[in-house]
Write a structure and sequence with these properties.
Layout: E1 6-10, H1 19-33, E2 41-45, E3 60-63, H2 76-94, E4 101-104, H3 106-114, E5 119-135, E6 152-163, H4 167-173, E7 176-181, E8 193-197, E9 202-205, H5 213-221, H6 223-233, H7 235-245, H8 251-274
Parallel strand pairs: 1-2, 1-3, 3-4, 4-9
Antiparallel strand pairs: 5-6, 5-7, 7-8, 8-9
Length: 276
């Protein structure tokens, strides 16, 4: 019987959200596709001080988005989280079978600071909606993006941004900037970094690749959420978002590609070496 265990590092701090539902759905579907019927994933509530996973017990990691400021403030959970990341990096340097990690939004912003790759600051306004994401040349060779167009579309929901990359440091470390946000010539601001390959085993996106178009469509069609979006961003923004959610070449495609590709790569990496 195949055994492939996935750890979800939950940074949502018990705040109700759609992201965790989407991640669990993708993980469950992937495991079923491999014939792994029993629940083979665990969730670790990182910001509530729960003990982090034991590296040897899991094969792949997904670190979630989350609410609030991603700026490092010295909380115990942050120290524990970065300690785990350091342990993971060292493990992957020493072992033939690697343990990959995918970082989403809040987790991506934490890792951007951990590696000291640039600046995280607060945006002048929230980036919210279905946005085009532009691939840079390294992304053309990145397996998690195979199957996506240029640009591709993803759900973006953030008050902070990763900007001003230290390109010399990034290049020296072997990391690669993969994607950036849409070009806005009328706004004289630097484009945010939307995806990075931090190490050979750690990749992250500042957007939400897990977003489920059907579930989000249902969520934002409720009267409460509809009124909240319109009050904050206007009716045109709301209508455009719903239109993009209904387009099979936008969010539906991204959801079906990015995290499933990440998990498939991790799965093949483990069993290709075991079966050598």
């Amino acid at each position: 019987m195949l055994e492939f265990r996935i750890a979800i590092l939950d940074l949502y701090d018990d705040v109700p959200n759609e992201g965790m539902r989407c991640i669990k759905s993708i993980v469950q579907q992937f495991l079923i596709s491999k014939g792994i019927i029993e629940s083979n994933y665990s969730i670790f509530n990182i910001r509530k001080g729960q003990e982090l996973p034991v590296l040897e017990k899991f094969d792949a990691y997904i670190s979630t988005g989350g609410p609030g400021s991603p700026l490092i403030e010295g909380h115990d959970w942050e120290k524990n989280y970065f300690g785990f990341i350091n342990e993971l990096i060292n493990y992957n340097k020493k072992n033939e079978i690697k343990k990959p990690l995918f970082a989403i939004c809040h987790s991506f912003q934490l890792l951007f600071q951990y590696f000291e790759f640039g600046v995280i600051n607060k945006r002048k306004s929230t980036s919210f909606g279905v946005m085009p994401i532009h691939k840079l040349e390294p992304a053309m060779h990145e397996s998690v993006f195979f199957g996506l167009d240029e640009p591709f579309w993803a759900v973006d929901s953030r008050d902070y941004q990763a900007i001003m990359p230290d390109k010399k440091k990034i290049k020296a470390s072997g990391a690669k900037i993969l994607c950036i946000e849409k070009y806005r010539p009328h706004i004289p601001l630097e484009r945010a970094i939307m995806a990075i390959r931090f190490t050979p085993e750690i990749i992250g996106t500042q957007f939400h690749p897990e977003a489920d178009a059907e579930g989000m469509h249902r969520y934002f069609k409720t009267e409460e959420k509809r009124n909240a979006v319109i009050a904050s961003y206007g009716e045109l923004k709301y209508r455009n978002m719903i239109k993009h959610l209904e387009d099979p070449d936008k969010i539906m495609l991204t959801e079906s590609v990015v995290l499933p590709n990440f998990l498939e790569h991790a799965f093949q990496g483990k069993f290709a070496l075991i079966n050598k």
